[in-house]
Amino acid sequence: MIPELGHFALIVALLLALTQAVLPLIGAQRGNLTLMSVARPAAQGQFVFAALAFGCLAYSFMVNDFTVENVARNSFSQLPEVYRLTATWGSHEGSLLLWVLILGFWTTAVSVFSRHLPDDMVARVLGVMGIISVGFLAFLLTTSNPFDRLLPAPIDGRDMNPLLQDWGMIIHPPMLYMGYVGFAVAFAFAIAALLSGRLDAAWARWSRPWTTVAWAFLTLGIALGSWWAYRELGWGGWWFWDPTENASFMPWIAGTALIHSLAVTEKRGAFKAWTVLLALTAFSLSLLGTFLVRSGVLSSVHAFATDPARGAFILGFLVLVIGGSLVLYAWRAPKMLSGGGFTWFSREALLLGNNVVLLAALGAVLLGTLYPLLIDALGMGKISVGPPYFNAVFVPLMAPALFLMGVGPLARWKEASLPDMVSRLKWALVISVATGILLPLTLDGFKPWAVFGFAMSMWILLTVLIGFRERLKNGARWSSLTRSFWGMQLAHLGMAVGVAGITVVANYQEERDVRMNIGDHTELAGYTFTFQGTTEHEGPNYRAARGTVEVGKNGKKLYELHPEKRIYNASGMPMTEASIQPALFDDIYVALGEPLDEAATIWAVRVFHKPFINWLWLGALLMVIGGFLAAADRRYRIAVKAPAPTGAAAQGA
Amino acid sequence: MKRWIPLILFLVLVGFFAKGLFLNPREVPSPFIGKAAPDFSLPVVGDANATFSPADMKGKVWVMNVWAPWCVSCRQEHGLLMALEQSGTVPIVGLNWKDKQREAEQLLARQGDPYFAVPDDLSGKVGIDYGVTGTPETYVIDQAGIVRMKHVGPISPDIWKDKFVPKLKELGV
């Protein structure tokens, strides 16, 4: 009964989304207020029914209703409750339902926080979001119904993929989708602006906080994904340049470029066409990511459902949404007049330079991700593109990006003076270069990439500090600094922290694969690891061999780690559960390999020393906080209180 | 013209995606299919004086299973291989790949030996000649010594029935 209710709720949501997509757009075109006013209630109703459907699915998972195929395939009676809940979005169908739910959430948020916007703008934005909802709801109902029954029911489920049974995975997908889907708001604003011809500073100001919040969520989602991979895959790696990871990273790069370009459009009225194109690109890449992950055109370590019928549907939808928006762009582009001029050396120019570098990096990642597909489609063979390509192309592109990141915020709009900038920044430059050269000397081994990384990290840190100092010197008080300034500074500082972390862990981590019998010990980075054998351990839905490794330093015992080798009951899938002792300056990471003898007393053990790895996630967290702070800036709220212009159809350009 | 560039680029990509939908990125064809199985001569596990070479199998259809005692997923297919050996359908040669701990003989004595012969590829060089990417991998080689099929990963009864049996029938087994 409950699954049927969920199915029915989905159908109602689709009908409401259709209403939301069609009527307000027609209304906005004709200047009909009645039709336009359908947008808000339809959007909110759609969200309510999507939430109801989601609740029904979650309920089916919680009560182990194995008559629902989706539950039978992705859950298990012994699965702990919290994972039964997250299994709701662990499957292909469930994750799409989460997509729809979150899109509904964003749509509702726009409908609530848009009192100050002209009615036609609201109608168009919600209408465009409605079109996207229609696409995804139709996709769910026609190819991926999460409520399909399976009769007769199996006695038990097939269990959730053990890799996903980790608490990083509980929050990673919702956060990632909040980011992915959040770019739909920026996309809808851009389309609405193209439709109405009102591409102005006000448009940039409206879409800015939405874009920044989406970007912050995406940052958090990616960071959580990386943290999950580090903890759960058992290899100590935190980024694999896997197609699935790239699928989330590409919208992030485009989104980063977009929030900077939006700043210029808002403050100076420049780069309009470019900003619009970026807004279209960021969301298009989110959709593309969904297509790549869900259609199976690329092989990935994260193998999800793959089905050509589903792929064909998403591809058709991509053509409609992205193709349609690009046609609209090409048609409207000549009408976009660029605002304020600027010289080659100004904040605008520096931000544009940074945008170009970011897009080049984006192009490199896109090419590397799609290259196997392109080669295969051309019948030129099967290849895969691995981390060496991405590192070789991406890392050098980050050099100008990080350098410009330091200069941009300190340069004047319109026209900056080069001699003035040089005199303000010369000490920062000297100190950064000196840090880059000297710091690696204090660590073991001089590595060229470490020089680069440390110098860049120090450069960003110093320029952030200079930013504060100059503001304060010019009469600002700490309390009078705007949230948007704090947000930018924190996000940039986060980058400095993250770059420092990546630099240290990539250049100075140590690892050792050893064969260990009970009582054997090995040394790594000054720590002593003593293997004390394994014991049998019974988990809720798995059995494990749990090892005990004593970690000591200078002859003193510090703590014990308990890496596990698990066999999951339902799937029989073996899993390596690493044991990690995290700390601000280094992580100790121990993973069990395979037993090397029949009695399982001798094991292959992997030990890692991961210095500064947590700085990476700390940096990402600073960026997230910075993003939320910037979006909470006062001026966006003052705008809310300003009298709302009504009947804007008449005011439209 | 400039304003149409994003659309054109996108449409080119769509073309590739449409084609990509009908390709399977996981199916990696071995370049050896239809070519002569690379020759080798290796000592045999359990008999210090004997050697094995693909030339010994001329005139027979046979299966080469690349395995190793340290390979966990090889244990999954061990039972099936034992059953096949008892049924006597086709000789299975077990290339013992990179067995650095020298455990193969012991393991086969204890668990049962499904193999017609176990050539000992300690250095892994023969594996490289065959393009082995990991264990287990299984090759079907025909009477003339031509590689006819390659399977990556453990063989389940279903895979044997759906993939191997038709191929062997085609070759007259």
Find the structural class of chain A using helix and strand composition: alpha+beta
Largest sheet features of chain A:
6 strands, antiparallel
Q: Give the largest chain-chain interface (CB within 8 Å).
A: A-B, 35 and 23 residues
Q: What percentage of the residues of chain A does DSSP assign to strands (E)? A: 5-15%
Count of distinct structural domains of chain B: 1
Helix content of chain B: 25-40%
Structural class of chain B: alpha/beta
Provide the gyration radius of chain B in Å. 20 Å
Number of helices of chain A: 20
Quickly give the CATH architecture of chain B: 3-Layer(aba) Sandwich
Describe this structure in words.
- The complex is a heterodimer of chains A (653) and B (173).
- Mean pLDDT of chain A is 87; it is low at 300-305 and 640-653.
- In chain A, the strands form two sheets. In chain A, strands 2, 3, 4, 5, 6 and 7 form a six-stranded antiparallel sheet that branches. In chain A, strands 1-10-9-8 form a four-stranded antiparallel sheet.
- Chain A is an alpha+beta fold.
- Chain A contains 20 helices and ten strands.
- Chain A has helices at 2-30, 33-36, 39-62, 69-74, 81-86, 92-112, 119-143, 167-196, 201-232, 243-268, 272-295, 308-332, 347-377, 387-407, 418-442, 448-473, 483-508, 613-631, 634-641, 648-651, and strands at residues 510-516, 521-524, 527-538, 542-553, 556-561, 564-568, 574-577, 579-581, 586-595, 603-611.
- In chain A, 63% of the residues lie in helices and 11% in strands.
- Chain A has three domains: 1-160, Up-down Bundle (Four Helix Bundle (Hemerythrin (Met), subunit A)), CATH 1.20.120; 166-413, no CATH class; 510-613.
- Chain B is α/β, with parallel strands linked by helices and 173 residues long.
- Chain B has one domain (33-170): Glutaredoxin, CATH 3.40.30.10.
- Helices cover 34% and strands 20% of the residues of chain B.
- Chain B is built from five helices and seven strands.
- Chain B has helices spanning 5-20, 72-87, 104-111, 125-129, 157-170, and strands at residues 42-44, 47-52, 62-67, 92-97, 120-121, 137-141, 147-152.
- In chain B, strands 5-4-3-6-7 form a five-stranded mixed sheet. In chain B, strands 1-2 form a two-stranded antiparallel ribbon.
- The longest helix of chain B is centred in the first third of the chain and has 16 residues, at 5-20.
- The interface between A and B is medium-sized, with 35 and 23 residues.
